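Intended use. Records like the one below are meant for learning the mapping from a protein sequence to its folded structure. Do not use them to infer anything beyond what is encoded.
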Amino acid sequence: MSKKYILALDQGTTSSRTVLFDDTGKIYGISQKETEQIYPKHGWVEQNAVEIYQSQLETMHNVMRDQNIDFKDVLSIGITNQRETTIVWNKKTGEPIYNAIVWQDVRTSKYCKELKADVNLNQYVHFNTGLVIDSYFSATKIKWILDNVPKAREMSKNDQLLFGTVDTWLLWNLTKGKVHATDYSNASRTMLYNIKDLEWDQQMLERLDIPASMLPQVRPSSFHFGDFSFDEHVIPINGIAGDQQAALFGQACFKKGETKNTYGTGCFLLMNTGKKPKFSSNGLLTTIAWGIDGKVQYALEGSVFIAGAAIQWLRDGLQLIDHAKDSEYFANQVDGDSSVYVVPAFAGLGAPYWDMDARGSIFGLTRDTGKNHLIKATLESLAYRSKDLILAMEEDSGVPLTSLKVDGGACANNYLMQFQADMLNTKVERAEIIESTALGAAYLAGIGVGLWKKEDILKNRKIEKEFHPAMEEEKRVKMYATWKKAVSRSMDWETD
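Structure written out for the chain above:
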């Protein structure tokens, strides 16, 4: 019997990738293409939705060609995606009526402040959608498009428009417009989905004047969503999950209390909280982790908007490094402790601060500060922000962290991972396959066609390296206290 494969389409904020897995769960090939970021105004972040799909399709065909695999040997396709990013398109023509508004975009922050002034609405959003009122989520982005694109309101009232997060947009195109759907995990990131009733929330739709006809059907994360046809081959699409929930699944965090942290464009910490939603009193989000076999699993989540993107800033904005991986070398060139702190609040601060008006800041500069200090401090900021989230998560859950499972591109940086272990005073586990996001999507697709069961996923997981804390407690406490001071001084910077 010939080897069979699963295709994982991993559409991220800065690139589209396709990862080909064999039937043992091993990576067989990867193809990646960067996508353009568009910044029309201060704080606005957009992408070309057509480019998103075309780049994803291109990487899918490239990995098949490069590995000399025929589509007839692909059992299923899984999709994982940047979440919250909002696309609205013409139902008949399939053309987007505006660029995709990226999750990092803060254009609706003023409107969100007006909504937050309503205390009852704040509580309603928190306990029904699991989220907080913030420009981060899809809801106010949809409203902005309807309010600002000519004829959009009229078209929406006449059932001529469709909304989707990136997974929905890819699915709709892959099925040639036959399927308009999403999964529980992505729906739970819109601020329009009731995570307790598992349906679109009518009160939120009415408050934001968003027609229900625009919204996709919501399905389990492992489900036969539709089919992709190529030549004479028909391949089922059996898995969809937002990138962070897919990573939680890929890290095999199936038990209540198990936690992972993804160091990607942003930094996202998720803890499996079981079959009932756990609502945070510390600024964390309650989200749906996944849905399988009619059962929904929930998670607590803390979001850092800028993580790997801060390293890209070092490379592209400041031109201090040629490649992201070079940051580890330069950080190790700093003798002794650096007093420099970077707060990478380029898109405001997420949990537990939720300050849309915070901005990126550098503190502790002296005459002898050089590029190595800035690189080191930027790396360390990722670990500090992750500690912010973990402290909040421990308090909400009542469960102390005993180890942290890590994935994402930046977790390959040994300096960062060791500093993370030092800051947390906890073991950090880096899996052999750090492509946990794509792996999670592949597993969901594989489960959907009977290739794997959860027990197989647990057996497949292998640790590549462990990092153990080696920092003195006094030093750890002092450094984190200074970080908190730096954060406080970066907040409430962007005022009206």
